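Predict the 3D structure for this chain.
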Amino acid sequence: MKPFLQNNEAADAFLLLRYQGSLCSTGRKEKRPIMSTVKDVIMNMKSSLLILVLGTGFSGMALADCEIKISVLEAKIATAQAHGNTAKAAGLQKSLAQVKANCTDDAKLVRAQEKVAKQEAKVAKAQAEVAEAQADLSAAQAAGNSKKIAKYQKKLLEEQADLKEARADLAKAKAELAALS
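Done. Predicted structure below.
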C-alpha cells in the first residue's frame, strides 16, 4: 500500500480542483496560484493530522485537561498565522489567554486523588503484611525454632522496607495532590 503523498494522480487531481476554485475554503470561486495552494494543502494536512493525533492519542484522558486545550489552541494559532489570518489568530490568542487564566485542571485533580487512594491501599496492605510477619516471628520464637526465627526476622525486615517505601510513595502522592488543590 502506497502512502497518500506518493499517490501523484490523487494529489494532482486535488490540486487541480483546488486551483479551479471548486474546493476554495472561503466558499467563493477563486483562482489561486499553485504554490500557495500547495502550502495551504500542507498546512491543512498538518493541522488535521495534529487534531487527529491529539484526538486519538488522548482519547483515554478527560477532555477537560488544560494541557490538551492549550495544545490544540496553539496549533490552531500557528495554522491561522501561517495562512495570514490575523483576525482569527488574535481571537484564538484571546481564547488561549482565557484558558490559561481560568482553566481548572479537574482531570488532574481526580487522577491525583485516585493515586492517593491507591497508595493508601498499598500502605494498608503493607501494614497487614508487617503484622503477619511479626505474628509469624512471635510464633517461631515461642516454639524456639531458630531456623524459622531467622526466616521470619528476614521476612519482617523485608516487609518493613516495603511499608517504608509505600509510605514514602503515599507522602509523594499527597504532596502532588496538595500542589493541585
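DSSP finds six helices and no strands in the chain.
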